[in-house]
């Protein structure tokens, strides 16, 4: 270890405080700290911090004069597109999937801390009758979609690679979880794990924070760290080698997510887009959700807090909000676009500041957990690359069909295990009705409605779960449900699924 050279480098970057406890450390602790510090490009970190501080001056500035709605030619909607056109989009998506040109990429760096657990969020069981986790639901949707593609176009490989970007904290638990469950029926080689980078946490004055006398406080660099990680991990090279042309990128916490949705893929491909997004219509003008729009001459997600109420309330002639494309972190990219971003534009992406309570080492060499934010984490966002395309496509879907995030523990106002579970029941209930089934009460009367998301009691609603192995999006259920009556709870499984008996009662 060249400690003197390290001290000189740290002093040049105004970070010499990081070795203030050096002489009190054991040899092993010195080795650990030395390795940690040598892995950090402090000049780059200081540059990131100074840019962030400069950008802070613009926070709170309203951006209304730059905003434009997404042009009509770049938009589409699942509810305003005729069934024949939807079928064409779906067919195009299935063709590309069958030919092995489509991948899915999962942003799975988050721990379940806000859910009250200390393991990756994708491993969370939100209380469905099947006890399936987010990871299992998503794996089984990929399996079913591959089957649908093969049934339509049997000549192709019909394999969807699943790239899973983890963080330092979630990588090994996630990998071990998939191994224990034999990748939920997927081929091990089609599931590729890779890790996003981290950045040191900083004080508000620009000093890197020590978490302990021999450990720097690190945090993942945000889901926009994807683009650097694609190159660093070799995933970009793997995509090219596999012949992937289109990738669906999404976040782990949406229980209703349709990975590689062939309709969405087909829509974006038909538009000639190299970058696209699924959106949901804003529920009301002040809903706290980012809005996708044109910002000057490029596309961007604008935070709700940056738009004045007057602009947020603007409506079109049809009565719909003018700026209504609510971002749900559900994106389409061509491989060529990703390759361009990773190779030429990644350095242009700017970090965003998140003020956080960051454990730090005090002068007594004790780790302290602060009660108030004491520093910042610097993050990039996955959608920040929208600015680099002129060929953008925006596909609006129904919130109740495709978006119900799991973020908070039960007891919070929204986005809890209960709301996620109820959203899935609601969707599957409607699938059964559409396929010709019905639900009846124990007294023989019909069920007049399904409970709203706000109702907490399971017995106040129809509990209905359809295995993704049986149906990807409600298709193919007629033989199982048409003309039949069911009592809640109902669990419909695919014939190949072993284990618990189906929880249902027929009349």
From TrEMBL:
Query: What biological process terms from GO does the record include?
Result: UDP-N-acetylglucosamine biosynthetic process
Q: Which reaction is this enzyme known to catalyze? A: N-acetyl-alpha-D-glucosamine 1-phosphate + UTP + H(+) = UDP-N-acetyl-alpha-D-glucosamine + diphosphate
Q: Which UniProt keywords apply?
A: Nucleotidyltransferase, Transferase
Query: Where are the annotated coiled coils located?
Result: none
Q: What class of enzyme is it?
A: transferase
This one is known as: UDP-N-acetylglucosamine diphosphorylase
- Similarity remark: Belongs to the UDPGP type 1 family.
The opening ranks of the lineage are: Eukaryota, Metazoa, Spiralia, Lophotrochozoa, Annelida
Pfam (any one): UDPGP
Q: What is its EC number?
A: 2.7.7.23
Molecular function GO labels = UDP-N-acetylglucosamine diphosphorylase activity
Q: In which pathway does it act?
A: Nucleotide-sugar biosynthesis; UDP-N-acetyl-alpha-D-glucosamine biosynthesis; UDP-N-acetyl-alpha-D-glucosamine from N-acetyl-alpha-D-glucosamine 1-phosphate: step 1/1
User: Can you name the source organism?
Assistant: Capitella teleta (Polychaete worm)
């Amino acid at each position: 270890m060249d400690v003197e050279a390290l001290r000189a480098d740290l002093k040049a970057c105004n970070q010499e405080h990081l070795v203030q406890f050096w002489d009190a450390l054991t040899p092993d602790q010195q080795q650990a700290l030395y390795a940690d510090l040598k892995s950090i490009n402090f000049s780059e970190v200081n540059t990131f911090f100074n840019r962030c501080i400069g950008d802070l001056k613009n926070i709170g500035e309203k951006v209304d004069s730059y905003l434009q709605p997404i042009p009509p030619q770049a938009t589409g909607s699942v509810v305003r597109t005729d069934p024949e056109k939807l079928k064409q989009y779906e067919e195009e998506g299935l063709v590309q999937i069958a030919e092995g040109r489509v991948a899915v990429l999962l942003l799975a760096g988050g721990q379940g801390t806000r859910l009250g657990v200390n393991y990756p969020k994708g491993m969370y069981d939100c209380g469905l009758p099947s006890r399936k986790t987010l990871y299992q639901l998503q794996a089984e949707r990929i399996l079913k979609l591959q089957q649908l593609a093969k049934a339509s176009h049997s000549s192709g490989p019909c394999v969807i690679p699943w790239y899973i970007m983890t963080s330092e904290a979630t990588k090994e638990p996630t990998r071990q979880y998939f191994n224990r469950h034999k990748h939920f029926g997927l081929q091990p080689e089609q599931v590729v794990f890779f890790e996003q980078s981290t950045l040191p946490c900083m004080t508000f004055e620009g000093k890197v924070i020590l978490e302990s006398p021999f450990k720097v406080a690190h945090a993942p660099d945000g889901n926009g760290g994807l683009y650097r990680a694609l190159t660093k991990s070799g995933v970009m090279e793997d995509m090219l080698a596999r012949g992937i042309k289109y990738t669906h990128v999404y976040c782990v916490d949406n229980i209703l997510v349709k990975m590689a949705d062939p309709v969405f893929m087909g829509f974006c491909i038909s538009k000639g887009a190299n970058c696209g997004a699924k959106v949901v219509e804003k529920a009301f003008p002040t809903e706290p959700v980012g809005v996708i729009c044109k910002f000057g001459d490029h596309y961007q997600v604008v935070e709700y807090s940056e738009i004045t109420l007057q602009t947020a309330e603007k409506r079109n002639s049809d009565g719909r909000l003018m700026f209504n494309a609510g971002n749900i972190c559900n994106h389409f990219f061509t491989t060529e676009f990703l390759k361009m971003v990773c190779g030429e534009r990644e350095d242009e992406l700017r970090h965003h500041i998140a003020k956080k309570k960051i454990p730090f080492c005090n002068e007594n060499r004790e780790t302290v957990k602060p009660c108030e934010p004491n520093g910042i984490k610097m993050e990039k966002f996955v959608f920040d690359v929208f600015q680099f395309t002129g060929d953008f496509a925006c596909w609006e879907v129904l919130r109740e069909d495709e978006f119900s995030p799991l973020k908070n523990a039960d007891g919070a106002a929204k986005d809890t295990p209960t709301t996620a579970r109820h959203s899935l029941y609601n969707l599957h209930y409607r699938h059964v009705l559409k396929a010709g089934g019905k639900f009846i009460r124990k007294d023989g009367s019909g069920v007049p409605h399904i409970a709203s998301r706000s109702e907490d009691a399971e017995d106040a609603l129809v509990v209905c779960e359809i295995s993704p192995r049986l149906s990807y999006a409600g298709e193919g259920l007629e033989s199982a449900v048409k003309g039949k009556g069911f009592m809640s709870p109902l669990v419909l499984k695919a014939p190949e699924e072993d284990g618990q008996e189906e929880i249902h009662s027929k009349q």
